[in-house]
Every structure is written in C-alpha cells, then in structure tokens.
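Below is one record:
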Amino acid sequence: MNHNIGLAYRARKVTVGTELTLTKLRNGQVFLMILATDASDLTKKKVRDKGNFYKIEVMETLTSLDISQAIGKKDIKVIGITDRGFSQLLMNEKRK
C-alpha cells in the first residue's frame, strides 16, 4: 500500500495535511482520505465527520510514520487521494 501511495504522490494526485485535504474535499476533488491511526482525537473526529458528510471513505490502517515515509515527508497525519484510479487501487488493496 505504501508503494502505491508513493506513486500517487509522485503523480501529484495527493493532498497533504488536514486543512488542504478538507478544502479539496469540499470542492469535490478528493476520492479517498487516509487518516493516521495515531492522529489526535480532534483530527480524527474532524476527518471522519467530513468523510461521512461528503460520502468519502476514510482509511485508518497506517500510522503517521507509514504515511510520512510513503510520501517522503515528516509527521503527516492526513492525506487525500485526488484521483479515482488511485483511490480504487488503495481501497482494493486494503480489502485483500
């Protein structure tokens, strides 16, 4: 999964950070959100609530370290996938 997140990031199909991801979500540009399992309770609530409201899946299977390493940044809690193909690929991978 981390490999495909890295591919999506290099293809510029990823928003990084809670606020940017939620802004893009409001504009209908995010198809999947990935939330770190070790994010704060406030961040988790905010992201889950927005995901429910906009009917977008929120994946919570990776830690902040996993997400950060996948995209080559530090201390990332939330990313959004802005491409339908990549979001399907990641959701299918999660179900395996």
